[in-house]
Amino acid sequence: MAEHAFALTGDKFSDFLAGDLLVKPATEAWERSGYYALRRAVFSDEQQLMEQDRDSRDFKAIPIIAVTHQFGMPEQVVGAVRIYSEAPGIWYGGRLCVERAYRRHGMIGKALVNEAVSRAIDLGCQTFLATVQQANEGYFHSLHWDTLEPIELLGRPHVLMQARLNRYPFLPRQVALTRRRSQP
């Protein structure tokens, strides 16, 4: 996050980050546009995992987003994940990402995973799976997931993981998230 100085006083301030967010399915055109733009920024530009982030699963996937709000009005997509069914009762999650400036928020990734798994359960999910970058395996363990097997995907180590459905939802759904305040 950038730090700036006032011209006359030398006092410093950081970029403004919205503290009011909502996690929900993307339903509006601008939300879907922001969803794809964020995925492209993270997976294509930043991580250089793939040249084109979109694939055939996007046609049947439900996009779920974290949206910032200012004065009660939606403003920017800062988190994304998709869910889709491969067979009756079998659901997958993927492309979980959070805007770089919001990664230390503390709740966005958790709320996206919570909503993704919970929504799939609402739609008849009996098994929820995801391929997760190996570096994020511990994070998913903290969100009630089990590792099934290591795999290589896009030339990088990943793990196939399964959510413990009996632990979901572990957070309230579709409520405003407030940013964790730093301790002085």
What would you note in describing this structure?
The protein is α+β, with helices and mostly antiparallel strands. The protein has a single domain, classed as Aminopeptidase. Helix content is 21%, strand content 39%. It is built from three helices and ten strands; from the N terminus they run βββαβββαβαβββ. Strands 8-9-7-6-5-4-3-10 form an eight-stranded mixed β-sheet, with helices on both faces. The chain has a two-stranded antiparallel ribbon with strand order 1-2. A hairpin with a 2-residue loop joins β4 and β5. The model is unreliable at 13-17 and 180-184 (pLDDT under 50).
Write a brief caption for the model.
With 184 residues, this protein is of the alpha+beta class. It has one domain (17-178): 3-Layer(aba) Sandwich (Aminopeptidase), CATH 3.40.630.
Structural class: alpha+beta
Number of strands: 10
Order of helices and strands: EEEHEEEHEHEEE
Q: Between the first and last Cα atoms, what is the distance in angstroms?
A: 19 Å
Structural domain tally: 1
The geometry reads as: globular
